[in-house]
Amino acid sequence: MVDISFQSPLANQVRRSIVPCLVLMLLFTGILPEAEARQLNESEIRELLERAEEKRQVAEEAEARNLYRQVLNLDDRNFEALWNLSILLSQEGFRQEDERVMRDYFEEAKSLAERSLELYPDSADSYYAYGVAVGRIADFSGPRERIRLSEEIRTHAEKVLEIDPEHAPGNHLLGVWHTRAANLSRTERWAANLLLGGAPEGASNELAESYLKKAIELSPGNILYRLDLAILLMEIGRDEEAIRILRELLEMEPKEKDDPDRLEQAREMLKDLQ
């Protein structure tokens, strides 16, 4: 017998699919006042957002993305769904092997971030989501396009911290920007000279270290932040400090979906340094 009790997963799924349709039907027929319809809609959205956050906390990102999409189907202006879905799409796109599929993810992430910026220009998270999406696009662009997009990333990362200096992901994003901009390859330097008249102004390894350490201070359990600090330290020849950071992060428990891969990368880096 199929379980359709009130608490069963099937019953919950049926309820979530039927309630919005029922609300619309009652609204259009005049049976349900608009204010009450809005209240029911908001209740459904709150539930979906809570479930999406729960899924994110246990690294079930596909389920979280689906829940955020359901929210946007009910309210295409919802701030939490817009910027969170943008970030999740940027992350999932980076895992794809087919570059065309990857770019589709990144372009959708950018589109959602642009929408969030348009509607919520005073939110640090809107600027952060846009910076991440553009950063991912830049990662798979040629040197000239990468240098051009680099200025967009920097502008949006700096805006994040202008709004909220304690924004851990924003500090990380700007730290990574400084790491890359201060250590351009020969081809990238040529492109920077052509487009900007030189390397990005103000980029420095000192600022990269400062922002990355601030991100770690704000979010000490984040593996990625420590990994990127170790990468910077290796880049500037401070191998002993990089070894210490790598050993620290290898003692940490994975929390995010990509953490096992990051830990494996850290092991390989440590092996090369020892």
Structure description:
The structure is a single chain. With 274 residues, the protein is an all-alpha fold. Among the domains are: 13-75; 77-140, Serine Threonine Protein Phosphatase 5, Tetratricopeptide repeat; 220-274, no CATH class. It is built from 13 helices and no strands. α12 packs antiparallel against α13. The longest helix is centred in the first third of the chain and has 24 residues, at 34-57. It is globular, with a radius of gyration of 22 Å. The termini are far apart. 33% of the residues are buried. Mean pLDDT is 87; it is low at 1-11.
Helices and strands in order:
Blueprint: H1 9-29, H2 34-57, H3 61-74, H4 79-94, H5 99-119, H6 124-139, H7 143-163, H8 168-181, H9 186-196, H10 205-218, H11 223-235, H12 239-249, H13 259-273
